[in-house]
Structure formats: C-alpha cells, structure tokens
Design brief:
about 40% helix; elongated; alpha+beta
Length: about 160
Amino acid sequence: MLPNGLKMAMDWESGVAKLNGMLSAMGRELDLSDLKLDEKGNCPLSFGDAFMLRCSLDSTGEHVTFYACVGSLPAEAEAFWERLLVANYFWKESAGSRVGLDPEAGNSVTLTQSIPMEFLDDELFYKHVERFVNAMDYWEKRLAALQETKDRAAFLKLP
C-alpha cells in the first residue's frame, strides 16, 4: 500500500495474466503458438531468423520491457557514441527505445524499451512490438554499415 491509501496500478499476478493474454493474442495474429511468460516473467519472441527479442514483466507487474541485442560495438566506436547520443535524444532514431551497451554481454549493443502495463491492450501491445522490431532492423543495419564502411562521416549521415 502506498501513502494516503493509494494502490499500485498493477500487481505481479495481474500483470502476468494481462501480458500472457496480449502475448497469446499476438501469437494468434502471427500464427505463433505457445507465447507466454516463463516463471521468471520472460518470453522470447522470434520473428524468422532475423529478429529475436525478449519480452519481460518487471517484478511489480507494472511494466513490460523489450530487450534485444542489435549488434556489436564497432571498431569505429567514436562515431557510434556520437550517433548513439543523437539517436537517444528525444528517441529520434530509436522509436521510443534506448540504445545502449550491455555491460554483462561484453560489447553487445542493445535496444530496450519499457512500457507501463496499465495503458496496454492487445492492439497497442502488437504495435509496440512492431515498432521495436522496426527499430531493431534500423540499428542492425546501421551497425553493419559502420562495420563495413569504417567511414565516420558517412555513418553519421545515414538516414
């Protein structure tokens, strides 16, 4: 219970039930069976060979988080850091997600997004997943381009 008798918007069990319902609806739409959270609140989502992400429910049941590795830290790291700062500025190039570096995974460049559960329904959840996958595609291509060109100026000008 919060001060002044306020209650949290969602609890773990409610969050699990709601997210499992949205995962199931998306699974039916995409012809993917058995989409549901495991006992730790995680569900891997795979869209062909190209895109793999993890959908997780936080410990309070109030936020769903998407997480994906979109590549490796390029050798031309200075250009990447500059592009990263621009991309994360008002989520200009990340579709509401954050681009970062996973300290536990060495040099893995990640994309993450956290969304409050209370505002989600089946349709909006699907749209968030779609936007996230599009952002994954964008960053995978940008990182590959930087690895290939090693041209800082060209990388910074990529659309």
